[in-house]
Amino acid sequence: MKIKLSYSSANRAAAYPYLLYMLVFTIVPVLLVIYYSLTNDEGAFTTANFSRVFEGVYLSVMWRSVKLAAGSTLMCFLIGYPLAYVIASLDTKSKTWLNRDTILFLIIVPMWMNFLLRTYAWLTILEKNGIINSFLDMLHITKLNLLYNNGAVVLGMVYNFVPFMILPVYTVLNKMDNSLIEAAQDLGAGKLHVFFKVIFPMSIPGVISGVNMVFMPAVTTFVVSDLLGGKQFILVGNLIEQQFLTVYDWHFGSAISVILMIVILFTIGIVGAADKDSDGGQLI
User: What structural domains and CATH numbers belong to the chain?
Assistant: First the structure.
């Protein structure tokens, strides 16, 4: 039996507050950014702001940001997918401490803490006299240079954003129809064959959501690179922050923001196209 939804004037009226919210807090700010990116201090139309973005030094910052964000997203996938798979496979009726609810709680709890404080915590772990190097010093092992490099920045990104990969993948895996897995096993498919032909294709929508939720904040972050990179590794987020808060060149900062939005939309488009090419995560 099909249910037809009737859209009355009351239904449309109920949507108006959401449309107003989108207009005020999404559409108008984006239009303002585009306006500033296409004008100069006198308000005259110009494309010079975009031309500056493609100068060597700024282009290298953009490329470094995309590269580190992509690496962080890959690391989040390699860590998050297996963990989400393990959580989804746990018995929901388990009375031990090692159950779904406990593990999900431990994953979500750090997100209750302020993002800045979570990142600051890694300074005490990675710094020259931090926890790791103090332990190495006790073992009479040469201290490591763990801070102010690309590795520290990627570590900070992965730590902060890996829950955004775990949760959507877990949600998809948890809702998966186990009868399809049982059918594949009854037909003689081994564990690896079942995973790559049934489980992983059906979990692709969750992977797509996780990639988008990790890549977007990773490519725009400036707190992680400021603290763990020691401002020696400027990313595009830092560059935008400097233009608005230090240099006060809102026009150039807006142009960088527009280019970054295009990069993010392009990345989302590629990921979405890959999802369509795989038949939307359905069985072949």
Answer: 55-283 (1.10.3720.10)
